[in-house]
Every structure is written in structure tokens, then in C-alpha cells.
Q: What sequence folds into this?
């Protein structure tokens, strides 16, 4: 099919990372629904089913249907204004990358973005999504293992991937001790190929690799489990909408008799939710960080920073959230019971405290729902 010239490099690079096949996955359907792209995807799918002038029709087989769907999809999406195209394609890719097989880097796609005219904000979002996956050594080692198995039975692989992944594993303080000697001793895949040919036939080579890679695969999984355990031990309890509702109601119940305590509760609720999200995402932070910095760090993790968006309405709403948190932090510092006060300090009224509590509950609900949505878009594959 004919791909619009401007996006043809992106089309080819998406095929290289397996995106055409991913479009048949249920997770892709969920993404298109959440981003209001269902109609475009349906139109692309219908276009790809048209078989005029297809010389393979009589065989009753598919002729790269998935790639055709991807091509039509990109063409139709590119008909939108550039800012809208950039927002949609970036949102799709940053949510998809964790669901795909391990991707060594996204440099080619970033280059495609640049040639299309998609700005730095979107490029950085894509890089950030990839970097999170790149820290998943269980997924990385599993990819390397399958690459080795593929080459051992005389199928071609990307030689550069072998070199880079081998070096990456050797640089890891734990994993390097479990890398088989025949990999550690051969920096280039050609050396590995010469070695593995001496281990017998295809089945013998496979069994040899399976037996010698066991410790490395186990170690990479242990690293993943330790990281998850660290997250769980730092989250004192699971935070969900019921938790927020309970704390919200408790704070509201304190308004009449103790508005200062209600303000403290409002601030504590935001702090708890932000720390829960950051802990669950494996993001390190200083436990004594002030509220505004804590919120900004959380917003960045959830892609809710105003500067991460170009559409004015989103920027206004998200900028408003930052201002609200800053105001709540100031209100808490001046009027809550968390600090000693001068005798002349004016006690906040119940209506001021009620505003703070309701803002806190609304922001926390928004943050948690955003976090849960992003989590639902990720189905880890190890």
C-alpha cells in the first residue's frame, strides 16, 4: 500500500519493533478506545480487507494484512493536525512499549518524530516510557536468551543486539556473575557462532543453552522480585478509591469542630497518595520532600505535567492542579495544626477548611484513577 512519504520511515520502524502484530492484541483495542481512535482503527481495518488487485486472493491467505492495517491507520491519523497526530501517536506508543517484546532502543523512532516535526516534549515522553522498560532486566535477559537460541539453530539475528545486550549484562553487578563463559568470552556474535557449532546438532545446541542460561534467567527474575518486594515494603497499605473516600469523609467530619486538623488531613491525604504512586512505580524520592515537589514528581510520572502537553485546555487544567497543590501547601503551613503558631494567628473557618478538603479529595481521586488506568494498559511479559 502507499504510505504518506512523511510518515513512511515511522511506519517501517514500527514494523521492525512488531507493532503491526500488536494491533491484533486486545490491549491495542483498549488503547484505541481510551484515546478515541476506535473509528480510525475500524476504518483502517476495513481498508486493509479490500483485496482488489491482490494476486494472492485465490490462495486464501493473508498478504501482510497486519502491516496494511498499520499503514492505513497511520495514514488516516496523519490527516489530523500535527499537534493532534503527535499527541495520539505518542500516547499510543508510550503505553504500548511496555507490552511489546523488549526494544533495544527507540532512537530510530525518535529520529522519525524529528523528521515529521514532532517536538521534544513528545520525544521525551517516548524516551521516558522506554527507559522504564529498559530497567526491567528480566525482560532484557529473556530477549537475549531467545536471541542466542535463534542464532544457535543458524537463523540470522541482529548482531548489534548481541553486542550491546552482552555488554549491558556484563555491566550489571549481579548478572555478570551468571553470564555463561562462552558468551562472556565472545564479544561478537560470530565468535559465539563458531563456538556453538561445536556443540552438536540443533537439538544439542538448544539443550546446551537451556542448561547453561538457567542461572542467568533465575538471577534476572530474582532482581525483578526484589524490586517488587521493595516497592511493596515501602507502601504501607494498598491505596484505592475506598481508602480515599474514607479519609475524605474523616476530614469532612472534622470540619466543624477542628478545621485546622481537617486541613492537615487534606494535605496528608495528597501526600499519601503521591507517595503510594511513586513507590508503586519504583520512583525514588526524599521522604521529607515538600508537598509541591512531591506532587510535581508524581505528575511527571503520570504524564500530567502541564509542559508535557500542547493542547491548551489540558495545559490550563493541569497548571491549575499545580496551583491548587501549591495553595493547599501554603494554607496548611499557615493555618493547620502541624506547626506552632503565634497567638495572633487567625483560626481558619470551616468553609476554608472544607474547600481544602474537597480539593484534596478531588485531586487524589484524579491521580489514583490516572495511575490505575496507566497500570491497566501494561501487561508485563517476562
A:
Amino acid at each position: 500500500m502507499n504510505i504518506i512519504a512523511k510518515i513512511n520511515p515511522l511506519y517501517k520502524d514500527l514494523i521492525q519493533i512488531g507493532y503491526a502484530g500488536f494491533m491484533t492484541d486486545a490491549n491495542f483495542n483498549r488503547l484505541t478506545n481510551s484515546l478515541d481512535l476506535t473509528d480510525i482503527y475500524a476504518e483502517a481495518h476495513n481498508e486493509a480487507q479490500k483485496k482488489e488487485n491482490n494476486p494472492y486472493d485465490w490462495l486464501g491467505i493473508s498478504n501482510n494484512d497486519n502491516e496494511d492495517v498499520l499503514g492505513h491507520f497511520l495514514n488516516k491519523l496523519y490527516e489530523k493536525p500535527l499537534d493532534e497526530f503527535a499527541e495520539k501517536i505518542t500516547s499510543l506508543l508510550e503505553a504500548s512499549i511496555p507490552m511489546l517484546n523488549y526494544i533495544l532502543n527507540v532512537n530510530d523512532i525518535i529520529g522519525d518524530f524529528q523528521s515529521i516535526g514532532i517536538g521534544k516534549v513528545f520525544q521525551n515522553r517516548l524516551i521516558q516510557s522506554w527507559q522504564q522498560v529498559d530497567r526491567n532486566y528480566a525482560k532484557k535477559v529473556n530477549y537475549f536468551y531467545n536471541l542466542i537460541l535463534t542464532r544457535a539453530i543458524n537463523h540470522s539475528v541482529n548482531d548489534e543486539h548481541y553486542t550491546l545486550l552482552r555488554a549491558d549484562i556484563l555491566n550489571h553487578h549481579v548478572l555478570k556473575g551468571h553470564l555463561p563463559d562462552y558468551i562472556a568470552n565472545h564479544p561478537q556474535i560470530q565468535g559465539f557462532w563458531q563456538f556453538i557449532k561445536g556443540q552438536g546438532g540443533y537439538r544439542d545446541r538448544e539443550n546446551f543453552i537451556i542448561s547453561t542460561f538457567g542461572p542467568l534467567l533465575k538471577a534476572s527474575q530474582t532482581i525483578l522480585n526484589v524490586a517488587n518486594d521493595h516497592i511493596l515494603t515501602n507502601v504501607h497499605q494498598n491505596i484505592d478509591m475506598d481508602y480515599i473516600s474514607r479519609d475524605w469523609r474523616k476530614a469532612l467530619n472534622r470540619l466543624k469542630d477542628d478545621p485546622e486538623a481537617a486541613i492537615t488531613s487534606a494535605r496528608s491525604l495528597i501526600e499519601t497518595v503521591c507517595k503510594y504512586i511513586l513507590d508503586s512505580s519504583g520512583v525514588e524520592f526524599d521522604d521529607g520532600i515538600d508537598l509541591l515537589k512531591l506532587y510535581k514528581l508524581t505528575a511527571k510520572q503520570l504524564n500530567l505535567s502541564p509542559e508535557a502537553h500542547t493542547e491548551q485546555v489540558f495545559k490550563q487544567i493541569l497548571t491549575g492542579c499545580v496551583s491548587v497543590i501549591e495553595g493547599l501547601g501554603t494554607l496548611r503551613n499557615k493555618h493547620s495544626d502541624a506547626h506552632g503558631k503565634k497567638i495572633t494567628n487567625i483560626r481558619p473557618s470551616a468553609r476554608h477548611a472544607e474547600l481544602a478538603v474537597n480539593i484534596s479529595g478531588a485531586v487524589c481521586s484524579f491521580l489514583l484513577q490516572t495511575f490505575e488506568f496507566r497500570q491497566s494498559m501494561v501487561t508485563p511479559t517476562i
Notes: The chain has three domains: 5-134, 137-234, 241-376. Confidence is low (pLDDT under 50) at residues 54-63, 227-236, 334-346. The radius of gyration is 26 Å.
